[in-house]
Amino acid sequence: MSDHLLSKENLMWRDRARKLAMEHIRPVAAEYDTKQEYPWPIAKAMAEAELLKVWIPREYGGDAGETPVLNLCLVVEEISRACGGIGVGFAVNALGSFPIILGGTDEQKQKYLPDIATGKRFIAFCLSEKTAGSDAGGMKTVATKDGDDWVINGEKKWTTNGGVADIYTVFAVTDPNSRSRRISALVVEKEMEGFSIGKIEDKMGIRAIPVTETLFDNVRVPAGNLLGGREGAGFKQAMQTLDHARPGVAAQALGLAQGAVDLALHWACRRIQFGGPISAKGQIQAKLADMQSKVSAARYLVYACARNIDAHAKNIGLLAAQAKLFATNMAMEVTTEAVQIFGGYGFMKDYPIEKYMRDAKITQIYEGTNEVQRLVVARNMIKAVGELDYLKPYCPMPWED
Ligand SMILES: Cc1cc2nc3c(=O)[nH]c(=O)nc-3n(C[C@H](O)[C@H](O)[C@H](O)COP(=O)(O)OP(=O)(O)OC[C@H]3O[C@@H](n4cnc5c(N)ncnc54)[C@H](O)[C@@H]3O)c2cc1C
């Protein structure tokens, strides 16, 4: 995208993240992927560069300016261009803190957000369970009232940054008899008795950051940690959070795809076959042109979606679903083509490109699978079909008068 379409503030965040990614992330991305180990020195560098302030309001210790969601996307894109795993390890702090920003009480914001902004404490998001993925509302983890406290029991699956995070936004059933107000959100701190980390997953991609089970065995949480003080609002809070966070996954995909194009282009211009660089071959040029055009198209969509969220537009769920669906499918296609351009070398772990393809896959699955995003988009389209009534005279139904 032309820099002219980004504000000074946008460019400041993008360039700060780009510099950090170049200096600190790219040189060690392969090492952390192989070791499957959390990159603490990089997390420290991100905190020192004040990148965790990008989505947090200034009154709570952050530095969110005019367009926090767009700025967040720019930062996630740049980090993911160097490493998709570290990109999501950063972005999940936004996913974990959006429930507090969007639905927390002032006291909860004062208590948690300043520490997240400085990187003193990290935060994660616990919605999914073994038997409740796409159907998150079917969760079984419960929180029961006991005096002034809530007591949580259950297991969460696939908590990104589990064990690394100090704070967890946890969704639990508080009223099993209600249909619409069944679930509440609670803020859990890792020191609370009964909280522990279960299985640490061995993953195909995003291997630099842990994804774990999080276990709750009679975890006693003070009433003040019920998000927004609102019992039964948890499902709505979770969905609002995902609408705000999905452009971040789209930006992760965008960064991965751009990183893969950069590598493929660089390779194609130096790989000699039949006496010249493969970049001189029409088929390779067509691939490169298609890849970059798809990345650019996704970039316009993701940035426009983020800007709409920042402008408090209506129906951001539809925009976020489209951005996530398009950018993540694009990233899978583009990273796969990039491996193809590398030929046999692309299949080898000696080269960085296969990691891009592995990292891209998860973006089609988490924060709502792409099948579910299609459902959201299609339902919105069908709901608004009345707006197309002007087409009636042009396509009469033979069985209607
Ligand atoms: C690496 C990783 C990190 C994650 N991080 C987090 C995290 O930090 N916090 C968190 O809460 N969760 C996290 N998740 C969970 C993630 O959001 C879920 O995996 C995802 O929502 C899908 O749920 P599922 O895996 O149970 O798949 P399922 O819901 O079982 O879906 C299986 C397949 O069926 C399809 N399907 C399901 N329902 C429908 C439908 N109605 N119509 C059409 N197709 C359908 C799906 O699209 C998919 O293809 C993470 C997952 C992974 C793998």
Describe the structure concisely for a colleague.
By secondary structure, the chain is of the alpha+beta class.
Describe this structure in words.
- This protein has eleven helices and nine strands.
- With 401 residues, the protein is of the alpha+beta class.
- The mean pLDDT is 97.
- The chain has helices spanning 8-25, 29-35, 40-48, 68-82, 84-103, 106-118, 234-268, 282-310, 316-342, 353-363, 370-383; strands at residues 123-126, 142-146, 149-160, 167-173, 183-189, 195-200, 211-222, 272-273, 276-277.
- It is globular and about 80 Å long.
- It has three domains: 3-122, Butyryl-Coa Dehydrogenase, subunit A, domain 1; 124-233, Butyryl-CoA Dehydrogenase, subunit A, domain 2, CATH 2.40.110.10; 236-384, Butyryl-CoA Dehydrogenase, subunit A, domain 3 (Up-down Bundle), CATH 1.20.140.10.
- Strands 2-3-7-6 form a four-stranded antiparallel β-sheet, with helices on one face. The protein has a three-stranded mixed β-sheet with strand order 1-4-5.
- The structure holds flavin-adenine dinucleotide.
- Flavin-adenine dinucleotide (FAD) binds at residues 92, 124-128, 133-134, 158-160, 203, 211, 362, 365-369, 371-372, 375.
